[in-house]
């Protein structure tokens, strides 16, 4: 086995690991979107338990996380572009979380968004690496 074939195998394994990891994430987000859409159609509001007077900046981290999951979906076809979208939106999410609610305040609960970001970031980084390796000619596309 040559070094090129070994690198191709590593890239293929990374690609399929990223895809397998992203399937439950994408499925969960789609399930949540279907639930919100169903509530909107049947009840007239996407979230009947929403709190009044909620600051709009509080909705930004979930929106950014949704966009990063959208990047995972894009990465199934275009690995480099999808990986970049995923990582960029997650970096923006983490930056916003650090500014808005530091992890040290109410630690067990404030750590949840950071853990979710890490769970989403891992396949995004793997897609990014696979796309970079394919672009450099290390692996067949």
Describe this structure as you would to a colleague.
The protein is mostly helical and 141 residues long. Helices cover 76% and strands 0% of the residues. The protein has helices spanning 3-43, 60-75, 79-100, 107-110, 112-135. α2 (60-75) runs parallel beside α5. The two termini are 20 Å apart. The model has no long low-confidence stretch (mean pLDDT 86).
Key descriptive features of the protein:
5 helices; 141 residues; mainly alpha; single chain
Structural topology:
Blueprint: H1 3-43, H2 60-75, H3 79-100, H4 107-110, H5 112-135
Helix pairs in contact: 1-2, 1-5, 2-3, 2-5, 3-5
Q: DSSP helix count?
A: 5
Distance between the termini: 20 Å
Shape: globular
Question: Major beta sheet, specifics?
Answer: none
Using only C-alpha atoms, the radius of gyration works out to: 18 Å
β-sheet strand percentage: under 5%
Poorly predicted tracts of residues: none
Task: Name the average pLDDT.
Answer: 86
Count of spatially separate domains: 1
**H/E series, N to C?**
HHHHH
Tell me the structural class. Answer: mainly alpha
> How much helical structure, as a percent, in the residues?
over 70%
Task: Give a brief description.
With 141 residues, the chain is mainly alpha-helical. The chain has one domain.
